[in-house]
Amino acid sequence: MAMRSPSIRLAPSLAACALAGCTGTGVQDVLAPAGPQAARIAAWFWFSFALAVAVFVAFAAILFWGLFRAHRRHLRGEDTELPDKHGNRLVIWGGVVIPTVILLALLVFSAYTDRMISRLGRGPGEKPLTIEVVGEQFWWQVRYLDPEHPHREFITANEIHVPAGRPVRLLLKSRDVIHSFWVPNLNGKQDLVPGRTNDLVVQVDDPGTYRGQCAEFCGVQHAKMAMLVVAHPPREFDAWWESQLRPHAPPSDPEAARGEEVFMTNGCGTCHSIRGTLAKGTVAPDLSHFGSRRTVAAGTLPNTKGHLGGWIADPQAIKPGNRMPPVPLKGEELRALVSYLHSLK
């Protein structure tokens, strides 16, 4: 039985990795643009792809035409070598002129695309919503800014809610390691560097949920450094903002009330904060309104009671190396704590 070389065996896996960003599912898909910035990038991709296909087809045709002519000349007993003047023309046109024209076309279209993307959402008459995104080593902190009404600002984690049809300016920072913010459906990548603020303007044309992923290796849990961008209709977004400003209300359900007691007496508030309570921690995600979030641990798991319970009981088994320690709780305490966190809508 013939043994296949390692490169052949790896080819399907490498092809799958290369196509992971263009799955055609609409979620984390560079070929399914959901906003004007991503549409420009997709147009540049298709232009480059079409140009590459045209070059391949043209040179393949020339190659086969040359081989065919050489074969016919060989059958007729004629000399198959090209005259020097033909060889020189081939080198000049095929090796210098045509590649120069192609590279120049790519350069011009690339510069035009970059210029257009940098202008989108930054016009004098446009007023983008500003959101600060801070990359922690294992999660994303999201701060919604309102310079005119600072008392209406608040912090969430791992989900970025935006109004559809309006440009959003993201201020990108990092507290500890270098990340790269990337939501393929919305725009290109932008680095988050400690001590520096970069910005990126995105706009989502239609309501929906779009997955993003850190695009630069940031540690052993880099693959589990995801986030969601949730686009609402404008009125729904305003209602969501108001809901985030509502103060914490003591749980009415007895089990959730017991869970709040478990949360406060086991030191959870040292790292986490819940607005309106004594929990004021800042080194871990803000858990205010946690029950309305879609995922746990920066997009690692769906936010179900089962997954949340498993995460609290042994977070190192799910995301090794993260800073969340195991919380030794009895079964009754764990169920109550999960009920409490899920009640924070």
Largest sheet: 5 strands, mixed
Distance between the termini: 61 Å
Q: Per the principal axes of the C-alpha atoms, what is the gross shape?
A: elongated
Radius of gyration: 27 Å
The share of residues in extended strands comes to: 15-25%
Helix count?
Answer: 9
Poorly predicted segments:
none
Structural class: alpha+beta
**What is the tally of beta strands?**
12
**What is the percent of helical residues?**
40-55%
Describe the structure concisely for a colleague.
With about 350 residues, the protein is of the alpha+beta class. The protein has nine helices and twelve strands. A five-stranded mixed sheet has the order 3-2-1-5-8, with no helix packed on it. Strands 4-10-9 form a three-stranded mixed sheet. The chain has a two-stranded antiparallel sheet with strand order 6-7.
Report on this model:
This protein has 345 residues and is an alpha+beta fold. It is built from nine helices and twelve strands. A five-stranded mixed sheet has the order 3-2-1-5-8, with no helix packed on it. The chain has a three-stranded mixed sheet with strand order 4-10-9. Strands 6-7 form a two-stranded antiparallel ribbon. The N and C termini lie far apart (61 Å). The model has no long low-confidence stretch (mean pLDDT 89).
